[in-house]
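Sat 14:20. Reprocessing the chain from the morning session after the first attempt stalled halfway. Input below, unchanged.
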Amino acid sequence: MEHSVGPCRFLGLLLPLDIPSDRSPKGSRGHRISVSRAVAERISPSLMSKPLTMESGLCGHGIDRIGVITRAWTGQMEQVAGQVAGQVAEIESVGPVGEPVLGLYVAGVLVEPAPLDIQACAADLAGGMDALGLSFAATQVVVEDYCEHVWRVADGEFTGAAVLRRDKGAYQSTWIKFGRASDVKAIDGGQS
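Finished this time. Tokens:
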């Protein structure tokens, strides 16, 4: 069975759920954060059609829009692997090897031509493309108790995501993979 090669796609772990962040994200006043699965499921629809951005140094959120998020869902890494196995021709593995991660996953399409060359930006990193992770941007964030050391997010709205060096993100276990979709409908639920 032959598949046509579609647009360049991305798939990644945006946010591990129910665990504290490794670092405090920008805007959290030095507090680490934690997002529950229930909150992620409630606010994940706000990710639809939001931008995936990048800056050339891969150290933070950029203004260069390199893609659009077309799907967001929560689950375990094995479930994600099962949903996309064989669907993205050039993505050989889904995420780093390790313990299953309950997380908020995103998929989408890259803009063409891209304003930045992702491979060129990652070329100088130890680990190359495997050193890349994701970070989210949000607004109207509500925290359960601002006196806690780890802020538990109760509500908010996502405004997008960014590709950056994994070691620069609040969650250092995030990841992103890129590839050509062999079946566009399968990876994004037909929402492209």
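Confidence is low (pLDDT under 50) at residues 85-92, 183-192.
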